[in-house]
């Protein structure tokens, strides 16, 4: 120990201490255990953080969709429909003997009014409102309430049970109208908002994404090409708006898949492209113009078979026969009877289509002229 205290050993120790002091002054984080990037921010880092925006522009969505709601919500209305229901004055009059005795037209009856609620979307400043057929079905009175507090009675312009769409009209001044977006541009994963009047609590906005496109074969409507979304849709939302983050209409909320009666993250909306064409047909024609060939298709393990034909209908006149296999429509392979129904329905009467058929192992094509689908045609007829 004494040898360590000799003068010739003191200088190296002092030199080491001085070097350590200089290093600590130049690199202060060496005194602790943190990495330089985890230590207190330097002046340079502080300047960068201070210059960064504190919030994103609202219209970009991650922070708020308030601008989209501000644009679209005034055009979404509440619809209150009243249905007049007649029933026997007393349950005894349901007895078949009394009904035969009095006759069906002489049974004493009483009337009661049943109210239901739904939603609708103003698509024109002239007062045209898109909603669901089931919202106004058999209604004797339809009352529409706007977001701004005004109310008016509506009249039915047209209704289409096959698509579950209807158009009603109100007569008020300075009506807001929503802008339509093309539903054909939608992709799975796109953000959407649903606006409506769930459970009658008042206008409500929910947010989600597009979960799937082209949903069909659900047994909801004759013509199905739904947008599926997990934006909450509940009773009372029917007929309301499905919009994009820019406040434009993408679809009409129509149905939910639920075991409880409430939203379980599977809702369906009719695409705006389909809704717009149906609306125009109902306004201009009073009915929906749909293409039709007069054939009944059956799905088998061997593909689609023509199970029946309307005599002298478009397909029959073109040369198709019962038992033929339908392989193609306008050069595109057919996958299901539902697909054929939807594809033909989009065509206007007078359009010519090519059917790729197979008969007794031989493939051939015929050309048919699309006709107007009769209102009384079965739901599964093409």
Task: Describe this protein's structure.
- This protein has 382 residues and is of the alpha+beta class.
- The protein has helices at residues 7-26, 43-51, 66-72, 96-102, 133-136, 272-284, 314-318, 337-345, and strands spanning 76-88, 109-122, 128-131, 141-145, 151-153, 155-160, 165-169, 191-196, 204-215, 226-229, 241-243, 249-256, 267-271, 291-292, 295-300, 303-309, 325-329, 332-333, 352-359, 362-369, 371-372.
- The strands form 4 sheets. A 7-stranded antiparallel beta sheet has the order 5-4-1-2-3-7-6.
- The chain is flat, with a radius of gyration of 34 Å.
Shape: flat
Could you estimate the helical fraction of the residues in percent?
10-25%
H and E string: HHHEHEEHEEEEEEEEEEHEEEHEEHEEE
- Main sheet: strand order: 5-4-1-2-3-7-6
Mean pLDDT: 81
Low-pLDDT runs of 5+ residues are: 1-5, 32-56
Q: What fraction strand?
A: 25-35%
Count of separate DSSP helical elements: 8
- Main β sheet profile: 7 strands, antiparallel
């Amino acid at each position: 120990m004494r040898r360590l205290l000799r003068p010739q050993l003191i200088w190296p120790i002092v030199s080491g201490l001085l070097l350590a002091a200089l290093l600590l002054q130049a690199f202060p984080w060496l005194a602790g255990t943190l990495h330089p990037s985890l230590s207190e921010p330097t002046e340079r880092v502080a300047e960068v953080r201070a210059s960064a925006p504190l919030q994103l522009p609202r219209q970009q969505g991650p922070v708020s969709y308030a601008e989209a709601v501000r644009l679209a919500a005034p055009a979404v209305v509440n619809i209150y429909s009243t249905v007049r229901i007649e029933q026997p004055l007393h349950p005894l009059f349901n007895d078949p003997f009394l009904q035969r005795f009095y006759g069906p037209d002489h049974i004493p009856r009483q009337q009661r009014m049943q109210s239901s609620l739904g939603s609708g979307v103003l698509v024109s400043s002239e007062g045209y409102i898109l909603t669901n057929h089931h919202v106004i079905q058999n209604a004797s009175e339809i009352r529409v309430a706007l977001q701004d507090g005004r109310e008016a009675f509506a009249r039915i312009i047209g209704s289409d049970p096959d698509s579950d769409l209807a158009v009603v009209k109100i007569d008020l001044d300075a009506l807001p109208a929503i802008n339509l977006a093309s539903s054909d541009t939608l992709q799975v994963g796109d953000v959407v908002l649903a606006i409506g009047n769930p459970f009658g609590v008042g206008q409500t906005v929910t947010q989600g994404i597009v979960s799937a496109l082209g949903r069909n074969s659900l047994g909801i409507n004759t013509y199905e090409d739904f947008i599926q979304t997990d934006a909450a849709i509940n009773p009372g939302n029917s007929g309301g708006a499905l919009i994009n983050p820019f406040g434009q209409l993408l679809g009409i909320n129509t149905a939910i898949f639920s075991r409880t009666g409430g939203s379980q993250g599977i809702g369906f909306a009719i695409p705006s492209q389909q809704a717009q064409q149906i609306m125009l047909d109902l306004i201009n024609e009073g009915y929906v113009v749909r293409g039709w060939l007069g054939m009944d298709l059956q799905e088998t393990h061997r593909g689609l078979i023509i199970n029946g034909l309307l005599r002298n209908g478009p397909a029959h006149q073109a040369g198709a026969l019962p038992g033929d296999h339908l392989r193609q429509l306008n050069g595109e392979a057919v996958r299901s009877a539902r697909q054929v129904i939807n594809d033909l329905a989009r065509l206007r009467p007078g359009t010519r289509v090519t059917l790729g058929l197979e008969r007794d192992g031989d493939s051939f094509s015929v050309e048919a002229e699309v006709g107007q689908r009769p209102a009384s045609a079965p739901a599964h007829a093409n």
